[in-house]
Structures are given as C-alpha cells and as structure tokens.
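Case study 2.
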Amino acid sequence: MTYIANPIFDAVFKYMMEDEAVAKRFIGILINKKIKSIKLKPQEKTYQKADADVTRLLIQRLDFIAEIVDEHKKKTKVLIEIQKSNRSYHADLLRFRGYLAQQYQSDDLPIITIYILGFELKDLPFAAVRAHPVCQDLFGEKNVNASSEFLEKLTHQTYVIQVPRLRPVLGTRLGELLDLFNQEYRLSDVKPGNRTLNLPYVPKDKDISLIVKRLERANADEQLREKLNDEEFAEMAYEEMFGKLDKKVLRLEKRLKKREKELEQEKQRAEQEKQRAEQEKQRAEQLEQEKIRTVQKLLQKGFSVEEVMEIAGVDEKFLKKHNLLS
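Prediction:
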C-alpha cells in the first residue's frame, strides 16, 4: 500500500505541479501530448466582511498555464482549474470565463482547458470527457475533417474530470493517472483522514510512479499540512462570509429563469392571438370581397337594389361604402 497526499486539495496539487518533470507527465498523459514547458500562476484575492474591519480572508485561486508542443511542433496553451465543491459554482464560472478571456487576449495560441471537479454535474454522467469543437458543413450537415488555424485559435478543447464519478480503470495510463484522484482511497471522509489516499497498488508505469513519489513526499511534508489547515479554514470562512450570498444568487437566478419562461410563454400567447386576429381579418376581407362580387353580379342581371340587399345580406351603407349604387 502507498500513502499519498490527496491531490484534489489546491495546496497538494500546487505542490505536485511545482515539480516540472511531474507536471509535464501529468498533463502529457491527460491530454496525450508532449509537453514543452509549464509555468504556474497562482492568483490570490483578499475578501473582507463589511461588519468587521479586522476580518480578512485570503482566498488563493490556483490557475495553471502550460505550454505544450505536439509531434508537428505546434504550440498550444493549457489552462487547468480545480474546484472541490460547487457551493460557489456560478461565481467560479464567471471568474474562469473572465480568466479565459484574458488568456485569449494575451496571445494568439490555441487554448485547451482542463476542469478537475470535486462534485458531479447532473447533466454529464461520465467520469472523464473531452469536448472537442467539431467542424461541420452547414449545407451538407455533415462533420468534416478540416484543419484551420482560424478555427483553432477561436475555439478550444475542454477536458472535464468529475472526481466523484472516478472508478479504478487500471488498464490504461490515463486510467491509472486519474485513479490518483479516486476519493474511495481516502483514509477517512473527514479531516485529517480525507487529506491522505491509500493506494492499494504500486503503479508500474514509470511516469505515473514519478507522480506518486511526488505525492508521497507531499504526504510527509509538515509545512504542506499547515497549508491544508489554512485551506480548510479559508473554505469554512468563505462559506460563512459568502455562503448565504451564493444561495441568494441561486434563488434569484431560479426566479429569473422562471420569470423569463413565463414572459416567453406570454410572448408566444400574444403572437398566437396576433396570428388569430390576422386570420380573422383576412377571412372578413375575403367575405367582404365575396359579397361585393355577389352584389355586382345581381345588379348586372337587373335585380333591384332592394332585392340585391335582401339576397346578398347587405345594407345600403355597405353599397355606398363600395360605390355599388349607380
């Protein structure tokens, strides 16, 4: 059995990725590419309670940027995001979308995004997926195998790993790599046992063994344990400070979506009423034209005005309106 630090924690993942050789192998196996270089750019933000001037909370957001090169020596940027929970799901989405926009503005390299999630997406029942932009011929409505620098730099591949859905799949390098995040190996569901994974095997792959050794050292690092304490405290404090706000935002969003749906239904009903009114108008106009033709035929055959009005079902006002009286 092998004891390793749990890489779902930001501090552990950061420790792992600070070793360039390990970082290259981790991303290389995940996206099946050869890595040229990698650099880490942590972003830190300080939040403060409005009712306590002395209460400050440092939230460290870790954004990983890797530059990779494939067999054709083409460069690509890789952005990695880790989220252990979805309690600030919408806020994190907005933050990462903004961060992604900054990366598009910084240079013209194609971008690959990787999301390692500690929670499940209800509408995506798979442990690991790759979403790749597909090029389609709109006229033929078929996917086409085309390579365009223009498209590559305006769209990006996305990898999504849902940690709670991971199951041991040890027949492949990717399966063995992702198994290092398998939370079923935790010593306990609560701290401090949740910070350590007990691998029931020794990886045979040399690259994955290198990653495991790095995580073994992380598990024995006293300073890292202190950072994990700080990380868990920060999460608790964040929940205290912003948890109610996040829940309120969710409720407001649900109400907004419900109202938007109601407005759309009202719009559809108004459109249907407008269509019915238009149809009624058209039928009335057709009926009026039919009466005019009937009156004209009756007058041509010598019927009197009184007889025409009785047969056609019109009055003198109708005849004057359409200039049918001689």
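Residues 317 and 323 are 10 Å apart (CA to CA).
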